[in-house]
Amino acid sequence: MSNPLEILLLDDEAIVGKRLKPAIEKINCNVEVFQDPLLAVERIKEKEFDIVVTDIYMDDMDGMQVLDIVLEKSSRTKVIMITGYAMI
Predict the structure, then answer these.
(1) What confidence tier does 33 reach under pLDDT thresholds 50, 70, 90?
(2) What is the pLDDT of residue 86?
(3) 29-34 and 51-55: which strand pairing?
(4) Domains of the chain, CATH where assigned
(5) What does the radius of gyration of the chain's CA atoms come to, in whole angstroms?
(6) Does residue 88 register a pLDDT over 60?
(7) Between the CA of residue 21 and those of 3, 7, 16, 37, 58, what are the distances in Å?
(8) What is the overall mean pLDDT for the chain?
(9) For 36, which DSSP code?
(10) Distance separating alpha carbons of residues 60 and 42, to the nearest angstrom
(11) What are phi and psi of 86, to 5 degrees?
């Protein structure tokens, strides 16, 4: 059996992490959930994740800034951008 994927999930809405974490864990993934982008970035700098799922619109830092930080650290990490806004 292969190692589980390491996933960081970042969304300033607590309900997103509460709903997505159990669903992702069911497919053999380890998930760390953050609501604060600054804390998430600290963790990204400490650990290499296979996938980072980030909200686009957040206070303090937006998803594009998170994307830049992830890509600076590792070109191997995949980034999935999500939003609750119907129109971008």
Answers:
(1) very high
(2) 74
(3) unpaired
(4) 5-82 (3.40.50.2300)
(5) 12
(6) no
(7) 18, 10, 8, 17, 19
(8) 95
(9) -
(10) 14
(11) -70, -30
Cα separation of 38 and 60, whole Å?
Answer: 8
Q: Rounded to an integer, what distance in angstroms lies between the CA atom of residue 54 and that of residue 33?
A: 10
Q: What is residue 2's predicted lDDT score, i.e. its pLDDT?
A: 82
Q: How is residue 30 written in tokens?
A: 């380890």
**Residue range 76-80: average pLDDT?**
98
> In the structure encoding, which two tokens stand for residue 87, read together?
């129109």
Q: What are the CA-CA distances from residue 24 to residues 19, 27, 31, 35, 59 (Å)?
A: 9, 6, 7, 17, 25
Render pLDDT for 48-77 as a digit per residue (tens, 0 to 9). 999 999 999 999 999 999 999 999 999 999
The CA distance from 33 to 75, in Å, is 21
